[in-house]
Write a structure and sequence with these properties.
By secondary structure, the chain is an alpha+beta fold. It has helices at residues 2-8, 39-47, 51-56, 90-103, 151-159, 223-231, 233-244, 246-252, 254-263, 288-291, 300-317, 322-353, 358-373, 381-387, 392-429, 434-447; strands spanning 13-16, 34-37, 59-61, 63-67, 73-77, 85-89, 107-110, 114-119, 124-128, 134-138, 142-144, 163-178, 194-200, 203-209, 215-222, 267-275, 278-279, 283-285. Helix 11 (300-317) packs antiparallel against helix 12. The two termini are 51 Å apart. The structure holds ligand EGU. Ligand EGU binds next to strand 2, strand 13, strand 14, helix 12 and helix 14.
Length: 448
């Protein structure tokens, strides 16, 4: 993505990728198969003329579909009519981006180049290629878009004063597959245009649709529970699913479920925050390298893509003077990326702790009511994150303010109801209760 942006601005770009060219790969192992693309990611794609093509190959999800333990289903729309998030294939997206980058004359792609170390002051990069041969390259400016375990970031941290935090959560994830209906030519076996959710307190499962008629299921669960189930072998797996996800067994298929569960490992989820993102005018990190987040808002890719858009806007402001652009990018972007990391972590906690609490469910209802009453004034948090380009740190501020107003409003409403009740009773009982009413009114007055 960043190669496309820089290439289209006329810079000479060499893109180094440790793996093979995914367009020629037969089978791509590991990492999640589909991604949720929303407004921020789409805006970044639009700017390089790729939005339409990506949207065409994505599946719109207009609502969430929640499966409870009894197999009962309920839906909640995401936004207004026509608003949706897209389930896109990671591989397809990578292919489109690579082809778009390759189309630019000044961009050259290099595959099978694994970065081993780099000299930031001289702009020298050291790679090993397919045959383990050492390859050296030189660059005036290095973009480190090399993921959560970034090599560029590691070097950056030795050269400047970088604040850094990393957190693993106790949950891991495992991907399972719901194949298309048997005997059909890729007909979906569950409702197509939804993000399916099976919330179950300590663990949770979600499913996103694929173009070939299948769904990719992602099960989030503490590592020790994964281990516990695996120890019991096939029976353990079946017992677990019968208890918590009975409706999913037939969709996945018994044999498929047993096979995948016991042959896959659960993968870790890491959250990384750091600041600044740059070294002088020589290097800058972007995407997961700068801000890896847990996936509980579906924003990892969207936030990373938005980095490119933001960087590009800052390039415009400084006429491409990297000595100004890089620090500006760091100070402008890191509060937002950190805010998103925090929101994602907050949602991880919330989803487990609060999904069943009465107050939480009540607040969700109030949220929807208020949004329905004041569609432009009261926007739910997920909506600001997913369907707007409001800066993430502003999203948090707005949300906190909104939350306070609503909570106070609800308390006031509660007290008014109580006051009314007391007043009615005291009218019947005369003087006896006037003092009580007075006392209460005084209390309410003091409270606000
Ligand atoms: C997790 C893993 C539902 C893809 C957060 C919603 C996600 C995605 C939600 C993954 C959830 C969770 C939101 C979207 C999205 C919801 C969101 C989460 C896509 C608060 C492939 N999350 N995800 N929230 O709102 O804003 O329906 O792996 F289950 S899309 Cl965890 Cl909108």
């Amino acid at each position: 993505m960043q190669a496309c942006y820089m290439g289209q601005r006329g810079y000479t770009v060499d893109l180094f990728e440790s793996r093979e060219d995914i367009r020629e790969a037969e089978h791509v192992a590991g990492r999640s198969i589909n991604l949720a693309l929303s407004v921020r990611g789409r805006s970044a794609l639009r700017h390089i003329g790729l939005e339409e093509e990506v949207v065409k190959s994505g599946i719109p999800m207009h609502a969430r579909l929640i499966h409870d333990v009894d197999g009962k289903k309920s839906t909640q729309p995401y936004g207004k009519k026509g608003e949706a998030i897209l389930s896109v294939d990671r591989r397809k997206l990578n292919e489109l981006l690579l082809s778009a980058a390759e189309k630019v004359d000044s961009v050259t792609l290099h595959f099978y180049h694994k970065l081993t170390h780099l000299d930031l002051d001289n702009g020298t990069l050291f790679f090993t290629d397919k045959n383990d041969k050492k390859v050296e390259a030189h660059a005036d400016l290095i973009f480190g878009c090399d993921g959560a375990y970034s090599c560029v970031r590691r070097q950056l941290m030795r050269k400047t004063l970088v604040d850094y935090s990393q957190e693993y959560i106790p949950h891991g994830y495992m991907e399972l597959c719901v194949p298309p209906k048997t005997g059909t030519n890729g007909e979906h076996n569950m409702e197509l245009n939804y993000l399916h959710i099976w919330p179950r307190n300590r663990f949770m499962m979600i499913a996103l649709p694929n173009l070939d008629g299948s769904f990719t299921l992602t099960l989030f669960m503490p590592f020790d529970e994964f281990e516990g189930i695996k120890k019991q072998g096939e029976e353990g797996v079946m017992a677990f699913f019968k208890k918590y996800y009975p409706d999913a067994i037939e969709k996945i298929g018994v044999q498929n479920l047993k096979d995948t569960f016991n042959s896959s490992t659960s993968l870790p989820l890491v959250s990384v925050k750091c600041s600044p993102y740059h070294y002088q005018d020589k290097a800058v990190i972007m995407g997961d390298a700068a801000h890896a987040m847990v996936p509980f808002y579906g924003q990892g890719m969207n936030c990373g893509f938005e980095d490119c858009l933001v960087f590009n806007e800052i390039m415009d402001q400084h006429n491409g003077d990297f000595a100004k652009v890089l620090p500006h990018f760091s100070t402008f972007r890191s509060p937002d990326a950190q805010a998103m990391c925090d929101l994602a972590m907050y949602n991880y906690v919330e989803m487990r702790a609060l999904v069943n609490s009465r107050w939480f469910l009540f607040r969700k209802k109030v949220d929807r009511l208020l949004n329905w009453l004041l569609p432009s004034k009261y926007i739910p948090l997920y909506s600001m994150v997913t369907f707007s380009r409001i800066r993430y740190h502003v999203v948090i501020n707005k949300w906190k303010k909104q939350d306070k107003v609503v909570n106070n409003g609800l308390i006031l409403l509660g007290f008014s109801a109580l006051g009314m009740l007391v007043w009615l009773v005291s009218r019947g009982q005369q003087i006896k209760y006037t003092r009580l009413t007075e006392m209460l009114t005084q209390r309410i007055h003091d409270f606000f």
